[in-house]
Design the sequence.
């Protein structure tokens, strides 16, 4: 399902913004998990699991952005709650029904 050129430009810009937000969120979680008082090995395992789990989610939302998979990535970005309603309104009229459907399916 290809995306129109104008929506593709919006997607690429918002993709970068969402990636930064995702990384910030993960790093805040890692900082919290890395506050060790006694059991450093346990802290290490927590941080490792966080990174591993978030890396899979990051790949699903951000890896290999192409016009042919833009809506799939967008669905995962929306599922992560990384874009505001105002940002999603930047997409054109043809993309809006798809975005609405994604939001309904994701419960966003």
Sequence:
């Amino acid at each position: 399902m290809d995306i129109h050129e104008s929506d593709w430009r919006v997607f690429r810009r918002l993709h970068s913004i969402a990636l930064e937000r995702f990384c910030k969120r993960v790093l805040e979680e890692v900082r919290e998990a890395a506050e060790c008082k006694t059991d450093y090995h346990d802290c290490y395992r927590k941080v490792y699991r966080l990174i591993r789990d978030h890396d899979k989610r990051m790949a699903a939302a951000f890896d290999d952005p192409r016009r042919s998979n833009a809506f799939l990535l967008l669905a995962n970005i929306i599922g992560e709650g990384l874009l505001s309603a105002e940002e999603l309104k930047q997409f054109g009229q043809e993309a809006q029904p798809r975005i609405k459907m994604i939001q309904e399916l994701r419960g966003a």
